[in-house]
Design brief:
- The chain is an all-alpha fold.
- It contains ten helices and no strands.
Length: 212
């Protein structure tokens, strides 16, 4: 059991993923976080940023082009998997009880995000934890047109991956010393990507309070 929790902790640590698992574990994590409902706790944005940063230092043994294409493929396939899962399970998800790896409120959060932004939720949602995982699942639940889903899937994934990987890569090329401050970079990215969700949570709570 102790070994299980140790492995789980390593999967939530971007630095461990890249140093211990390398390139292929990176792709597995991206796939899981972008489409498997239990992947919401995995690192996303800062994992891509660090992958680009370490690639610029030669610490990932692939070219930046190979890195980009491979992660995009993993992210696109992850979303297709999430869509298929939502399409097959449908309303059952809304009646499912909470567990360690599933929270019904995450589906509701994705539903509200989708109601606000429509199909663009699949593009914008890539940049927000939890939404990134559950938006394609909810798209499958409501049976979004598959051709439209495919368009948003590719557009969102390419934008998301290129933004973070290339930001890490070019900053790493210009400022090689950044690799010595990975902990601070990760903390900063976590704060930046979490702020919108915290704001949305308190806005919703305030609305509910007013309604009551």
């Amino acid at each position: 059991m102790e070994s299980f929790w140790e492995h789980l902790q390593n999967l939530t640590d971007a630095q461990s993923i890249l140093s211990k698992g390398g390139f292929y574990l990176l792709l597995v994590v991206v796939f899981a976080e972008t489409g498997l409902f239990f992947g919401f706790f995995l690192p996303g944005d800062y994992l891509l940023f660090m992958a680009g940063l370490l690639c610029s230092q030669g610490m990932i043994d692939v070219s930046v082009f190979t890195l980009l294409i491979s992660i995009i493929i993993a992210g696109v396939l992850g979303n297709y998997t999430g869509y298929w899962f939502g399409y097959r399970t449908g309303p059952v998800l809304f009646n499912r009880g909470d567990s360690l790896f599933f929270k019904k409120r995450y589906i509701v959060l994705a539903e509200e995000f989708y109601a606000k932004y429509g199909g663009m939720a699949l593009v914008l949602g890539r940049f927000f934890p939890i939404i990134r995982t559950f938006a394609p699942i909810f798209a499958g639940v409501v049976k979004v047109n598959f051709k439209k889903f495919t368009l948003y899937n590719f557009a969102g994934c390419i934008t998301w991956v290129c933004t973070f990987v290339l930001a890490g890569y070019f900053l790493g090329r210009k400022y090689p010393q950044l690799k010595d401050y990975l902990e601070y970079i990760v903390l900063g990215l976590i704060i930046i990507t979490t702020i919108p969700l915290v704001i949305a949570f308190f806005k919703k709570k305030k609305t509910i309070t007013r309604t009551n």
